[in-house]
Write a structure and sequence with these properties.
By secondary structure, this protein is an alpha/beta fold. Helix content is 49%, strand content 15%.
């Protein structure tokens, strides 16, 4: 709020200055012409200047006025450009806090060790703890997900679900030895190798101002003018077939910056198709269907089941019905593991998961009841 108030104050100050300067310059220009006519007219009356000389002087003055104004305009742009460049330079000179150690970077350059070796897509968390801004986001979270298994993560808003999955591709750093993939500490796996294993569809999808096909095929280096078969297959699996068919140019429709021409649900499904097109060994879906209705989500998940089979998958959803078929379900509450088990096991325990399930069943029944 303080920064917004300061920005508003400075913006209004700039507008007022521009509002004063624009008519001020016009008045100065008109006043200059008036002075020339008054002084030059006296010189003409006195015989010290001809009418032609006065006319020429007035024309030269008119020729000089625009370059003078343009010079001031250029100086203003120059100052704004310098300020903008300082901001860009600060961004470009910023180093990423999460990066490979010297030893891991050397192995990547030499093509040795985990840089080229096979990695089993199994995941093991050993007491992951994450604190941010003096607040504990995750508190000793542990789980084991074998290769090819499916883990669902549910819990109230702010329970730490997204932070937990962000630790897997190292978007969020964790302590050494607390997260293992294929039995290896994630900090010992080169970042390009680690992230090459993972397909991630976030809840807040980011789309580029490019075609639908280029956005979906981004993980494969783009799709070019021709829609690749894998891009089309990924779009169909994400439930985008009918939507793309309704677009003006189909797969070659430009979606605008951040996908502004698409709905929230369409943007999420494009991001989901992008993750699927990468054909990752580990697939993470972070509530990536929250903007679609329950029936559409159910249809898309049924299409995804054959794709998820045999692939290590992590699903986050606020809808219990969307995760009930997972091999194991992790229930987070205030950054801690409240429960863990299968759908039936958690229902029989009568804990937080069972409470969420009952509440959602009641809400669905009320929504379907006649008015």
């Amino acid at each position: 709020a303080r920064l917004n108030d300061e920005f508003l104050t400075r913006s209004l100050r700039l507008v007022r200055a521009r509002g004063i300067l624009t008519p001020f310059f016009a008045v100065i220009a008109a006043l200059g012409t008036l002075i020339v006519l008054w002084a030059g007219g006296r010189q003409v009356i006195a015989g010290r200047l001809t009418i032609g000389g006065l006319t020429a002087f007035n024309a030269y003055l008119a020729y000089l006025s625009w370059p003078t104004v343009a010079l001031g305009f250029v100086l203003s742009i120059w100052q704004r450009g310098i300020a903008g460049w300082d901001r860009v330079r600060t961004l470009l000179s910023t180093t990423c806090e999460i990066r490979d150690s010297a030893a891991v970077a050397a192995s990547m350059r030499d093509g040795t060790g985990l840089a080229v070796g096979g990695l089993e897509p199994s995941i093991e968390a050993r007491g992951i703890t994450v604190a941010r801004g003096g607040r504990t986001i995750l508190d000793k979270v542990s789980f084991t997900l074998p290769a090819g298994g499916t883990l669902a993560i549910v819990g109230p808003t702010g329970a730490g679900k997204t932070t937990l999955v962000d630790t897997i591709p190292r978007l969020q750093e964790v302590a050494p030895g607390t997260l293992l993939i294929g039995g290896h500490d994630v900090r010992d796996i080169p970042l390009p190798r680690l992230r090459g294993l993972i397909g991630y569809a976030p809840q807040e999808a980011f789309l580029f101002s490019a075609t639908v096909a280029e956005n979906i095929g981004f993980s494969r280096g783009g799709s070019g003018a021709m829609v690749a078969a894998e891009v089309r297959a990924a779009a169909e699996a994400a439930g985008l077939g009918a939507d793309i068919g309704a677009l003006p140019e189909g797969y070659e429709t430009v979606v605008g910056e951040r996908g502004i021409t698409l709905s929230g649900g369409q943007r999420q499904r494009v991001a989901l198709a992008r993750a699927l097109a990468a054909e990752p060994q580990i697939l993470i879906l972070d509530d990536s269907l929250s903007s679609v209705d329950a029936s559409t989500e159910k249809e898309i998940l049924s299409r995804l089941r054959p794709i998820l089979r045999g692939r290590t998958s992590i699903l986050i959803s606020h809808r219990v019905a969307a995760v009930k078929d997972a091999d194991q379900i992790l229930v987070l509450d205030q950054g801690r593991v409240a429960e863990c088990g299968t759908h039936l096991q958690l229902l029989s325990s009568g804990g937080l998961y069972a409470q969420l399930y009952r509440e959602q069943l009641a809400a669905a029944a009320l929504a379907e009841a006649p008015a």
